[in-house]
Inverse folding.
């Protein structure tokens, strides 16, 4: 569905992917599930008259189990170029072995 001048919604009712068309190609924000990306994203693009081969970047707010990897392997779109440059938005949690101990419980 065309939402605004160059902004499109593709996806499902509960999960969304957004396409921003530019003169340099398409930026896709989120890519859904690996099992539904062909129908929802690629099929959605085709219904809207957009070329999925024009995807230049896939920006991932959170990956739904492989949709971004699927698009990267099928169309060669780089994943999240900003994350590579800036690093993750927050530090990764420490492994459980390094985490501080949890609260002690009193035994009776």
């Amino acid at each position: 569905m065309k939402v605004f001048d160059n902004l499109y919604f593709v996806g499902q009712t509960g999960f969304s992917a957004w396409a921003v068309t530019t003169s340099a190609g398409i930026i896709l924000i989120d890519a859904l599930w690996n099992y539904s990306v062909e129908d929802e994203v690629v099929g959605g693009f085709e219904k809207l008259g957009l070329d999925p081969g024009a995807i230049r970047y896939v920006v991932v707010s959170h990956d739904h189990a492989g949709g971004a990897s699927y698009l990267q392997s099928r169309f060669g779109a780089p994943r999240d170029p900003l994350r590579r440059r800036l690093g993750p938005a927050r530090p990764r949690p420490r492994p459980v072995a390094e985490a501080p101990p949890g609260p002690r419980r009193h035994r009776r």
Remarks:
- The chain has one domain: 2-81.
- The chain has three helices and five strands.
- Strands lie at 2-4, 7-11, 16-22, 25-29, 55-59.
- The domain at 2-81 is CATH 3.60.15.10 (Metallo-beta-lactamase; Chain A).
